[in-house]
Specification:
By secondary structure, the protein is an alpha/beta fold. Helices cover about 45% and strands about 15% of the residues. The relative contact order is 0.14.
């Protein structure tokens, strides 16, 4: 009999296709090496979409009774991926994670955080983060910047380790989508950081036709879709919108939407990662610590401003494909993390 690993985060199906790339990498790796193991997961959003894309996972709703039932059937609790150490929208993410880990430990389950990220240092300094660290059997953070912040905030080196994002496991082995001509702009940012004129001027100057691409399906604050919906007709015409059908798309279709471009200007973690693996030239706008970390991991061009046509055109022209050695280093870290996780189980 194999183990049942319960993925205790419930953000799956919310509309951010980066989550699906992480989950695909985790599932594919385990299926190849531990086919007898089973995976269950919570979904607080579009559970039908997740069952369509990941039929091999047993999906539970996120209500209290379903959470309790999932724990009763599990052998270990896993917090998989995401920038979960964050407080930009309050402490509710940390509060829920702490409650779920406490419930899992009360049932005698070991709890692990695998490939998770830190959006801001202040989140690591909360009482919730301190308690989460105490409850976790082991924590693998997705880059060295996250690890350094965690260790400097009192996380112990004995249980806090360097890992990587599990999306690397999927993107490294998935068929490479054909690269379309032009530039994909995948921009999640405050409207105050974005000037329409910069995009309208920079593309023609760099002789790069552009498409406005959504990593996030929903029209939520600062999202690609809301920025495009709020833009002028001239902007919408010059940069047509590509919004993959998150409720019905396959993982391959979601992957191709953000990765299959010659050039990508991104303020999204997983778009940057997927585009780099596909061979695109990538420039990154560092809207927070996690974007700075992935840019440094991949060695991508930095786009310092999205409201300056000169800077945007410069970033477009300077962007180059990511060196294979950097991608392989990220993949090696992910593989090592997964082997350590399995050994800990």
């Amino acid at each position: 009999m194999g183990l049942t690993l319960h993925i205790g985060f419930d953000f799956w199906g919310a509309g951010n296709l980066g989550d699906d790339l992480m989950l695909a990498g985790f599932q594919e790796w385990l299926r190849a090496r531990r086919p007898e193991w089973r995976i269950s997961a919570l979904c607080a959003h579009d559970v039908a979409a997740m069952r369509l894309r990941f039929p091999g996972i047993r999906w539970f709703s996120a209500d209290p009774d379903s959470r309790a039932e999932a724990l009763r059937q599990a052998d270990a609790w896993v917090g998989l991926g995401g920038g979960v150490f964050q407080i930009e929208v309050g402490t509710w993410i940390l509060d829920q994670m702490l409650a779920d880990m406490t419930a899992a430990r009360a049932r005698g389950l070991k709890t692990f955080l695998v490939g998770v990220g830190v959006n801001n240092r202040a989140a690591l300094e909360t009482d919730q983060a301190r308690r989460i660290h105490e409850l976790a059997e082991a924590i693998w953070l997705r880059d060295s910047a996250c690890l350094d912040m965690a260790l400097s905030c009192g996380f112990s080196a004995g249980k806090t380790h360097l890992g990587a994002d599990t999306a690397h496991l999927h993107c490294a082995t998935a068929p490479t989508p054909p690269l379309r001509e032009g530039t994909a702009f995948v921009i999640h940012a405050s409207p105050t950081d974005v000037a329409e004129s910069a995009f309208l001027e920079a593309g023609p100057r760099a002789r790069r036709p552009g498409t406005w691409v959504c990593q996030e399906y929903r029209s939520i604050p600062d999202s690609e879709l809301l920025l495009h919906q709020s833009a002028s007709p001239e902007f919408q015409s010059a940069l047509p919108l590509l919004r993959p059908s998150y409720p019905t798309a396959t993982v391959a279709e979601l992957h191709a939407a953000v990765a299959g471009w010659q050039r990508v200007v991104s303020s999204r973690f997983h778009t940057s990662l997927a585009a780099a693996w596909a061979g695109a030239a990538v420039a990154i706008f560092e809207r927070n610590d996690k974007l700075r970390a992935i840019r440094e991991d991949l060695g991508c061009e930095r786009c310092a401003r999205l409201n300056d046509a000169d800077e945007l055109a410069r970033a477009l022209e300077s962007a180059r494909p990511v060196a294979r050695s950097r991608l392989d280093a990220c993949l090696d870290r992910t593989e090592r993390m997964m082997h350590e996780f399995v050994s800990a189980l």
